[in-house]
Amino acid sequence: MVNTLFSSKQGGTKQFKQGKSTEFGWKAIIDLYKRELVRVHNNQARMVPRLREAHCLRDSWTKLNVLPAKIMQQEQVLGELFWYVNQYPPPDDASEVQETLAYLEACSLTFERGFLSHDRIRNLDSEILQNITKGYDYFSGWLTSILKEDPKYPHTSSTQRSFLSWQSMFTV
Length: 172
Description:
Layout: H1 2-6, E1 16-18, E2 22-24, H2 27-41, H3 53-57, H4 60-64, H5 66-72, H6 75-85, H7 94-115, H8 127-149, H9 166-171
Antiparallel strand pairs: 1-2
Helix pairs in contact: 6-7, 7-8
């Protein structure tokens, strides 16, 4: 899912949209890393200490590495993006960053706090199952909103650009 988000970078193969006008994606991660560099330059504590430049540039090796994907779905990244969108006055790109945050939160719920959780599922009311359901609801809601705008949208096509690849959606 993080590699799919990476493909939404400028010049990438995807163009993530929520609604008719809000484009979101990898730019929020690059901007987060730039804010981290400013914090370091100003002798402030980093909000995402494990985030590295290689995680943002994502060469072929990094794309295969699990650690950067785990970092993108953990509380420090989510917290930094949440902090950024709640500045006063709101930044110009707040809606785009908010959508990226929602995407990463859904990934976190589905994987970090869902399928990859080390807790046991003891009943159908398990928090793990609830997290997976919430994460899935985000992605199915996103697809529903796209299909509402364009009922003939080719969401299973390998050439579509505004949604997850069909293979990624299938894993969810």
